[in-house]
Amino acid sequence: MILQELSISTKNCIVQKDGALLIVTLNRPEAKNAFTPEMLLGMYKAWRMLDQEDELLCAILTANGDTFCAGMDLKAGADGDQKSSDEFLSVMKEVPNIHWQALLRDNRPNKPVILAVEGYALAGGTEILQGTDIRIAAENAVFGVTEVARGLYPMSGSTVRLRRQIPYCLAAEMLLCGDHISADQALQFGLINRVVPEGTTLTVAREFAEKICSCGPLAINAVIRALRNLQENFSEEEAMEASDKLAGPVFSSEDAKEGMRAFKEKRSPTFRGK
Question: What pLDDT, in 10s, does the model give residues 147-158?
């Protein structure tokens, strides 16, 4: 199936829509999909579209080429020759943290984002992974928070999120040593969901997206909020109280009634997000 590019696409970031699914593809394979202002602009617009359009229920983040993402373009940064588009600079005046929103550090969309990784996902490539919800990696995938090896600090959220997503000692090893880890290691660490044959990550990601899009939109939205916001800074009692507040509108919705009717009538539910 050939999907049409949306108008918010940029040269380095292709955004496509397939029903309730948004597909965001990093498109700078000649430079290992290292981040550029144009790429960040496309990603920022995609996440805001995902948040704002009710008919969109889920997104997949993937990349063209044999490397998912090498993070920041260090060569361009060192040479001072990385150019921002006029539009990026214009948006940045109104949205100073546009780069952090693009990289899913700030203002994450309140809908699931599925990651499909082939090849290397280093530095920012592993950092943006931590802003996604379900992660599919090819057998050849390689991960690493490598900033310290370059005398840099991982600014895209790893110092906060990584220790919350995998055991502390493993997070410390990744952050302090800057080593590469294989897809199998990442699976053992609990950093990703599946390891699949090369060339199949997008197919498997689509399978997950199909399952998510078949569920109740209000329920999915509430669960995403709970997963991301009710973390260890809450006591169990506080977290349960906050969770109940999220659950209330879901149980009183038309979707909830439809789901129960469909179960009773032994048919697939038709959810309307109401």
Answer: 888 888 998 989
